[in-house]
Amino acid sequence: MLTGLPHSHVPEPEDSCIWRWDTRVGAWRCDAIHYAETRTTLCELFGPRFSDEVMKPEVISFAKVELPKLRPEQTEALTAWHRADYRGQIIMPTGTGKTEVALAAMAQTKTATLVVAPVRDLMYQWHRRILQAFEYDAGIVGDGLSNIKPITVTTYDSAYIHMATMGAGFGLLIFDEEHHLPGKCRREAAILSTAAMRLGLTATPQRSDDLHKDLDWLIGPVVYDMPFKQARGSTLADFDIVRIPVALNDSEQRTYDQCSRTIQHFITSRRKELPGYTWQDLCKESGKDPQARHAQRAYYLKQSIENRASEKLRVLEDIFRLHKGQQILVFAGSNRMAIEVSGRFLVPTILSHTRKHERHAVLDGFTNGQFEVLVANRVLDEGVDVPEAKVAVVIGGQGSMRQAKQRLGRILRRTGNARATLYEVICENTKEVHRSRKRRRSDAYERTIHRRV
């Protein structure tokens, strides 16, 4: 809020649209994200008449700094961020050490920092990494906790809810998995903060809605972009992808085909009256139209059959036998399938609603070799460290190239010369074939040998 200027005096050139006159208090307002640039402008315009009462971020003096020596590409990324006035995005493949770059940035800037992560698991992982690196017990905002400290970790959902009250307390914002930020509400986490320094981290910035373009002003421009092929076989482990097609049994195929006919018949009939009728229109009508609701249920039943095909469980058992003694990640397409795999093979699973202590116990057990298999739906797609796993099995999922790269990245952290293997179990004659093809368009899959078993 800028006081002392009348309504007739626009604080910046009239073509600027960042300022709004607030009739409630008779003052000019702009979003906190513009604080650094407007402060400079106002100082130049008004000199000693300008007074700044915005809270100043605390200077941090860490008791210790124990960070691994940065590799050349990590140093290059950090240097590029410095040269861009401490604002920008660093894009590096999963497993190449983006977290180490961010911790090094925190050590060098020595300013109050807020780390924003997409899920609770990653939030707590950041808390542990900060504790290990600096012996600093960071504050936590999220998962029912609200403990704000000069170094704090939070989730995107908690950040946009609370940033209006805590946004002036940090000089550096670190957005892990930054592609979550441009959403309609979550972008508030960047807009409502005065932090001049901003660092975005991701392996996959692109979004299907093109909102990733807004990251340039929410965080800063891309300052470093490391191609996947540069990391493969050097920073990351080399890998194979094995595609295993399976067939639905007779009962599953009959139900699947009947559901397909139901959906097609409904949409075709609707398009006779409304030529532009889409799946989104069907979802809108499902709350009031029984026929639309029936077609929607048929769609979800089709998905369930793809995700939980009985032949997938048989193939999964063969893979477990083949890699006995190795740690294996299983990525399911639904919570129900993850629970079914967990129950059949007596292996632990982590889902979005799994409680914190159970999550930590399962992840620690998997890391130290107590559990050989870990099953998840989407919880392990992003960021969670599982450095020893070199085998992953995808038995369901979206057609998203981002999800494909993230899941592949979970097994590519280099351990000696160990080679990673990703199995993709696909139901033939279903939509899963199309989703699999879409996933393989990612640059992570370029020049990769796909063995069909």
What is the straight-line distance between the termini?
64 Å
Give the strand line-up of the largest sheet: 6-5-7-4-8-9-3-10
Which fold name corresponds to the CATH topology of the largest domain?
Answer: Rossmann fold
Biggest beta-sheet profile: 8 strands, mixed
Descriptive labels:
single chain; 453 residues; Rossmann fold; eight-stranded mixed beta sheet; seven-stranded parallel beta sheet; 16 helices; globular
Q: Topology of this protein?
A:
Blueprint lengths: L19 E3 L4 E3 L5 H12 L25 H12 L3 E5 L6 H12 L3 E5 L2 H15 L4 E4 L2 E3 L3 E5 H11 L5 E5 L11 H4 L5 E6 L12 H4 L3 E4 L2 H4 L7 E8 L3 H24 L5 H7 L4 H18 L2 H13 L5 E4 L3 H11 L3 E2 L5 H12 L5 E4 L14 E4 L6 H9 L10 E8 L3 H9 L10 E3 L1
Parallel strand pairs: 3-9, 3-10, 4-7, 4-8, 5-7, 8-9, 11-16, 11-17, 12-14, 12-15, 13-14, 15-16
Antiparallel strand pairs: 1-2, 5-6
Helix pairs in contact: 2-3, 9-11
Descriptive notes:
With 453 residues, the chain is α/β, with parallel strands linked by helices. The protein has 3 domains: 72-226, P-loop containing nucleotide triphosphate hydrolases (Rossmann fold, 3-Layer(aba) Sandwich); 239-248 and 309-452, P-loop containing nucleotide triphosphate hydrolases (Rossmann fold); 250-307, no CATH class. It is 39% helix and 17% strand. Strands 6-5-7-4-8-9-3-10 form an 8-stranded mixed sheet. A 7-stranded parallel sheet has the order 13-14-12-15-16-11-17, with helices on both faces. A two-stranded antiparallel ribbon has the order 1-2. Strand 15, helix 15 (401-409) and strand 16 (420-427) form a beta-alpha-beta unit. Helix 2 packs across helix 3 (98-109). The longest helix has 24 residues, at 250-273. The relative contact order is 0.11. The model has no long low-confidence stretch (mean pLDDT 89).
